[in-house]
Amino acid sequence: MNKSDLKVPPGKISINRRVDVLVIGAGMAGLPATAALPKAGRRPVVFDKGRGVGGRMATRRIGGATFDHGAQFVTARDPRFAEVLDQARAAGAAVEWCRGFASEADGHPRWRGQPGMSSLAKHLAAGLAIVQETQVVALRRMEDQWMAGMADGETWSAGSVI
Ligand SMILES: Cc1cc2nc3c(=O)[nH]c(=O)nc-3n(C[C@H](O)[C@H](O)[C@H](O)COP(=O)(O)OP(=O)(O)OC[C@H]3O[C@@H](n4cnc5c(N)ncnc54)[C@H](O)[C@@H]3O)c2cc1C
Q1: Which CATH number goes with the domain that contains 24?
Q2: What total of structural domains would you count in the chain?
Q3: Is 132 within a domain?
Q4: What is the DSSP letter of 8?
Q5: How much distance in Å is there from the Cα of 104 to the middle of ligand 1?
Q6: Quick check: 1 pLDDT over 50?
Q7: pLDDT digits (tens, 9 = 90+) for 29-86
Q8: Whose CA is nearest to atom 23 of ligand 1?
Q9: Which of 14, 22, 40, 62 matches a 20 to 30 Å C-alpha distance to 100?
Q10: Given its phi and psi angles, is residue 36 left (phi above 0), alpha (psi -120 to 50 degrees) or beta?
Q11: Which of 28, 77, 130 to mutate to test the pocket of ligand 1 (most atoms within 8 A of CB)?
Q12: Across-strand partners of 66?
């Protein structure tokens, strides 16, 4: 393998490691997808460039105030995601907030993290293999596998990528 193919930063050490499924991003999309994969016999590893999990499910604190500065709630239109949220509710990481807003109340439940959206993210991330502070900067299909170049100069190979 030619390192220049992966466009890794020059001068970095390249260590090739292999994962079954490489998931990019520990957000609302990546976390439930990763949690579902072992049931299908796959062994996923999530890579996220951030220091925490959740992506735009993010709770911040300023002084004594805590607020969600991304998604304030989620809904479940798919029974599989409804099951994920039901497990989060049972674990105390999510609560039903409302069923719509004022004149636009439609009876469909809106769920929020308890106490904030990052709690839901942490619940979804529990038990998953997550590599944090690692940005995927290049992806290349090579024969029967994917090669992922990371910002730190490492390369990882994977059978599948999400
Ligand atoms: C202000 C605001 C309010 C919102 N309100 C709502 C709401 O009320 N209800 C609702 O349902 N939705 C809401 N949304 C939308 C919702 O937040 C997003 O649709 C959802 O969080 C997207 O999830 P995601 O996993 O696709 O992406 P993200 O949450 O963005 O997660 C992507 C993750 O991937 C990581 N990442 C990205 N690129 C790389 C890379 N190259 N290498 C490694 N890691 C990488 C990021 O660090 C991040 O953690 C809101 C969004 C905003 C900004």
Answers
A1: 3.50.50.60
A2: 1
A3: yes
A4: P
A5: 25
A6: no
A7: 999 999 999 999 999 999 999 999 999 999 999 999 999 999 999 999 999 999 999 9
A8: 28
A9: 62
A10: alpha
A11: 28
A12: 61
